[in-house]
Amino acid sequence: MFRFLAILGILCTCGPALAQLPPVFDSTAAATAHRSPMVKTYLTPTRIVWLSDTTGTYVQNPELLLVPSNGQVAVNDPKLLRLKSDSTHRAGVLLDFGKEIHGGLKLSMGIKPDKAPVKVRVRFGESAMEAMSSVGGEKNATNEHSLRDFVIEVPWLGSIEVGETGYRFVRLDLVDEGVDMPLYAVQAAFVYRDLDYLGSFESSDERLDEIWMTGAYTVHLNMQDYLWDGIKRDRLVWVGDLHPEVMTVSTVFGQNEVVPRSLDLARDQHPLPQWMNTISSYSMWWILIHQTWYNHYGDLDYLKEQETYMVDLLDQLETFIDADGKETLDGGRFLDWPTSPIPEAVHAGLQAMMVLTFEAGSELMAELDRPELVTKYAATAEHLRTHVPQDNETKQAAAMMVLADLADAEQINTDILKQDGVQNMSTFYGYYILEAMARADDHAGALDVIRNYWGGMLDLGATSFWEDFDINDSRNATPITELVSAGSDDIHGDFGEFCYVGYRHSFAHGWASGPTAWLSQYVLGITLHDGGDAVTIDPHLGDLAYARGTFPTKHGLVSVSHVRQADGTVATEVDAPNGLTVNR
User: Are residues 411 and 523 in the same domain?
Assistant: First the structure.
């Protein structure tokens, strides 16, 4: 078990998670209000990436920006960073906080003869180049969902805190001429849930360990008041995105209230016959998430709260099946963005999802003691299996067909999933591709996909996983930590399709966290079932010499260790909490 700040690898000053409320606080209002679980920590920049002037004329003592500060201004500071401007130059600086974070920025100014506030332009960026960009232009920098480019006034002998977005880099520029600004401190105001990392993963391959942790951190960043898709954009509860995110939450943090809170929001925001987020598959993901959540935690009271909506939704879905068992869903017909222009792929994926959804519905109705619906929905799933989609060649839809038993896992793995290496992947459906490879007993191949695809993002400086990644874009690309020189590609600004063109691309997107859940489920071999009262341990080390780790359950942590022996067999040790049945 690890504390989050230790994982982040930073020193910080933290405020209390929940302050004592004053006596005048209205307790009646508090009864209906939601108290935010977020805490705030102030971080110091780790690196100066760029200065507008290196002669000491306009930017003086920049190294002081890297010295930890308490953020409290004083009248007698002997030496401060000074930003200056005249008619020909406006001082500017680009800072790196070392890791993708969520939150804002605190600027503190010291004393100066002129008491007027100073105008400063602030630009946030998930990459160094995004922080250097202006809104608009060919590379599609935006202020959508959260402001990242704006002008503020910093008060004389005071502080101001601004912004709420996902970022790692910040550029600051003076706006007016004739300014001599004594800048006391620049601090990131990091906003997060202060959680223990209960789950863990360690193996003979440090790259896989880093990928596991990066996926965990990516989802942690998005565990705000609700479970968002991204902290820069869209900052929304997209139900399809929730499925891999919930798998990661369960793997790392256990039974956290952000999951039911987000599921209930999606339900209440989309009364039937609306599809969740206007997308029919996202309503199906809602049911599949409830299946996973119940299998892990067995909260029957919570499941009963969903019964009416769930039954009505399943009955609505059933009206979109023709006599031949083919899905005919309306609304947004969507799997992920790369497959969206390919009707054969979308149909194949939706057909598979319909099968999985009605199987899940039948299973959940058994828990709700609705035997007539158990039979009905199981029969619907079988009727859907009578139609097998043809002509799909995408990895995403092929993987879903394997998971729904509409296609042979080994054949699909050979003919589609393993073709062209990690080209034609998507970060969203990456988890399901890995799961389909596991169904084909190709765990070693899946490990290589994780190393090469998600590892490819790490090679480009990622500290959280991205909304989209095309391995072909990395061939001539500069890491996100550096400014791009002539002749090199800007991995953030030069690429992207659909909703993630250029700098609009989200670099901390929870749907990309699939390897975290997959490594714990398939390499450590940990699968919870029976409402979280039982666990099956079935490890698959692939080419690893050892793997060990922990997994949170409602009974406590289960710990496993797997070591490959000289004869090729794997020796396994399991330490399980009381109340948890272990199957081997």
Answer: yes
d(CA 43, CA 95): 12
d(C-alpha 354, C-alpha 397), whole Å = 13
Amino acid at 449: V
Q: Is residue 492 part of a domain?
A: no
pLDDT by residue for the chain (584 residues), tens only, comes to 555 555 566 544 444 343 444 554 455 554 456 788 999 999 999 999 999 999 999 999 999 999 999 989 998 877 899 999 999 999 999 999 999 999 999 999 999 999 999 999 999 999 999 999 999 999 999 999 999 999 999 999 999 999 999 999 999 999 999 999 999 999 999 999 999 999 999 999 999 999 999 999 999 999 999 999 999 999 999 999 999 999 999 999 999 999 999 999 999 999 999 999 999 999 999 999 999 999 999 999 999 999 999 999 999 999 999 999 999 999 999 999 999 999 999 999 999 999 999 999 999 999 999 999 999 999 999 999 999 999 999 999 999 999 999 999 999 999 999 999 999 999 999 999 999 999 999 999 999 999 999 999 999 999 999 999 999 999 999 999 999 999 999 999 999 999 999 999 999 999 999 999 999 999 999 999 999 999 999 999 999 999 999 999 999 999 999 999 999 999 999 999 999 999 99
Instruction: Provide the domain limits for residue 55.
Output: 2-18+34-193
Q: How many domains does the chain have?
A: 3
If residue 243 lies in a helix (H) or strand (E), which one and from where to where? helix 239-252
Last residue of a domain, one of 166, 193, 220: 193
Q: How far is CA 551 from the centre of its chain?
A: 19
Q: Are residues 180 and 48 in the same domain?
A: yes
In a domain, 38, yes or no: yes
Q: What are the angstrom distances between the C-alpha of 171 and each of 49, 95, 186, 578?
A: 9, 6, 11, 53
Nearest to 159 by CA among 84, 72, 231: 72
The tokens of 11 are what? 């020193």
Asked if 162 contacts 156 with a C-beta cutoff of 8 angstroms, the reply is no
The answer, yes or no, to whether the previous bond of 16 is cis (omega within 30 of 0) is: no
Q: Which two tokens stand for residue 261?
A: 């809170």
**pTM of the complete model beyond 0.70:** yes
Listed in sequence order, the DSSP H helices in 253-393 are 258-269, 280-297, 300-318, 343-367, 371-385
Residue-wise over 538-547: b if at least 16 C-beta within 10 A, else e?
ebbbbebeeb
Same domain? For 186 and 281 the reply is no
| One domain, residues 162 and 210 | no
- Distance from CA of residue 368 to its chain's centroid? 32
Residue 475 covered by a domain: no
